[in-house]
Amino acid sequence: MQKGSIEIIVGSMFSGKTHELIRRLRLCAIAKKKVQIFKSCLDDRYKHSSIVSHDGAELEGVPVRSSSQILEMLKSETQVVGIDEAQFFDPGIIDICELLANKGIRVITAGLDLDYRGMPFEITAQLMARAETATKNLAICTICGEDAHYSQRLGAPSTERVVVGATETYQARCRRCFEPPADSPLSKLKNNTTTQVVIPAKAGMTNFCN
User: Which domains does the chain show, CATH number per domain?
Assistant: First the structure.
């Protein structure tokens, strides 16, 4: 049995996550590996039955409504599983990736690490912690041209955490140009002109500096 593993590619919108996922999966196919690709049915931006990068690269992929469907559709001969837009899945995707890797399957997944508020997606953060390798891609800031790792949501304010969209909905922004929405914890830090940060005390913690 081949050695299983989890790889994850993360970054902001327009950082080339899906492009890199497609590149790795194509290399697996060239190496004669049996590959299956899955995507969330929420991602309907380009093609229903393909994973598609913003620059037009694509591979056929199966849209699923829940992470459990990946196991239901998994073929016995599959050696590599690709999963795009991990943040769109339910939390069960974390254990699914672990289970697949423990079965000797190479799992390659991609997804946003931060939401529109600049806060971590829990699913992506968990996968990064459990993965053998994690790659963080940077985009180019739409405003100033520097490296960007935030996804700026455009248009009317919305507190929906997941809003599917492309250039009409999001821009890549650097730390300086990113404007956190009012409901983001980063908003207070962004507008804080002092160097003081209040750290709340936690029960059961001891101050060893005294």
Answer: 5-137 (3.40.50.300)
